[in-house]
Specification:
The complex is a heterodimer of chains A (about 200) and B (about 110). Chain A is an all-alpha fold and about 200 residues long. Chain A has 10 helices and no strands. Chain A has one domain (about 5-190): Winged helix-like DNA-binding domain superfamily/Winged helix DNA-binding domain (Arc Repressor Mutant, subunit A). Chain A has helices at about 5-10, 15-25, 30-50, 55-70, 80-105, 115-130, 135-140, 145-155, 160-165, 170-190. In chain A, α2 (about 15-25) crosses α3, α8 (about 145-155) packs across α10 and α9 packs across α10 (about 170-190). The longest helix of chain A is centred in the middle third of the chain and has 25 residues, at about 80-105. The model of chain A is unreliable at about 105-120 (pLDDT under 50). The radius of gyration of chain B is 32 Å and the shape is elongated. Chain B starts with a helix and ends with a helix. Classes of the chains: A mainly alpha (about 200), B mainly alpha (about 110). The interface between A and B is medium-sized, with 33 and 23 residues.
């Protein structure tokens, strides 16, 4: 079985997803447990790549799962994961915007929550160097939209049509953005000597 | 996906394998989701928000307060005429009120 959400969409029998959706709509606690224990890590990895920060990603995943479980009645299709990732990407974008505002210190929520981006990036840099996270580090240098599409296409293996639905962008935009993201990533990896 | 794409995918997956929630975090997350799943009606949400504000656990953002105050001032200013009653009109209203009460045998 593929380890990615997009792969899961294809590999999982449709009945399994329908069963999970049905359980969530019925308020079944086992369905919530299945959702969290089997799929929260995947969401966390995707959010970590997009946000470049695991701690922020944990908050976003929690918020996204809460929205998904609360608003499961709104899901009309039989596929849970593209909808779940739509919520996740939307929350990642909101979190990213708030992170920039907090950096400017116009509306500090709480002094303890004010973590300048450079401090987070230093910590990420240390983790990357320790764990030899070359690709993650290279992707971290890309702009948000490129990180999103790299994550959804390569890490989660969604199709371009699914990505277009998740990010609410036209298919043509997604195609050209993926092309540019690949080019930029290749450039970064070449500069770091990771590609020949 | 070409070879480079697959290689990229595998490398990224392997680098992120350690990024995961702990079992205790997942358990807490499940409890949190189950507890907060209960849907509140709109009225309940409004009451809950008002109670939070009254108990001081929630602060209204300043710009919202200013906007609310502006609306209040504009609203009062536009309806100010209703509150301006001259002496004769006030006397008439008072007399009518007393007659109504007498007719209802409340006095």
């Amino acid at each position: 079985m593929s380890l990615t959400a997009g792969g899961l969409v294809r590999d999982l029998h449709q009945n399994s997803q329908e069963k999970l959706i049905k359980g969530l709509k019925a308020g079944d606690e086992d369905a919530v447990i299945e959702l969290v224990f089997n799929y929260s890590d995947r969401l966390l990895r995707a959010a970590t790549v997009i946000l470049k920060d695991q701690y922020l990603a944990e908050d976003v995943v929690q918020d996204s799962l809460l929205v998904a479980v609360s608003k499961i009645e709104q899901l009309r299709s039989n596929y849970l994961f593209p909808w779940l990732y739509k919520i996740l990407v939307s929350n990642c974008r909101k979190k990213q915007r708030r992170k920039y505002w907090n950096m400017l210190e116009f509306w500090p929520h709480n002094d303890l929550e004010l973590v300048p981006a450079f401090a987070v990036d230093v910590e990420t840099q240390i983790i990357e160097e320790t764990l030899n996270q070359e690709v993650f580090s290279a992707i971290s240098e890309l702009p948000l939209k490129y990180r999103e599409i790299i994550t959804l296409y390569y890490l989660e293996q969604f199709s371009l049509e699914e990505i277009s639905s998740i990010t609410k962008e036209p298919l043509g935009t997604i195609k050209s953005r993926l092309h540019r993201a690949r080019k930029r990533l290749k450039q970064v990896l070449l500069e770091r000597g990771k590609l020949k | 996906m070409n070879y480079n794409g697959k290689k990229l995918q595998k490398k990224l997956e392997s680098e992120l394998r350690k990024v995961a929630f702990s079992t205790s975090q997942k358990t807490e997350l499940v409890d949190f989701l189950i507890e907060n799943r209960k849907k509140e009606s709109l009225i309940q949400k409004v009451v809950h928000a008002l109670l939070e504000f009254w108990n001081g656990t929630c602060e209204v953002p300043l710009y919202l307060g200013v906007i609310g105050l502006l609306f209040l001032v504009i609203g009062v200013r536009n309806t100010l005429d209703i509150f301006l009653v001259d002496n004769s009109a006030a006397l008439l209203l008072l007399e009518q009120g007393i007659e109504t009460i007498e007719r209802m045998d409340l006095l």
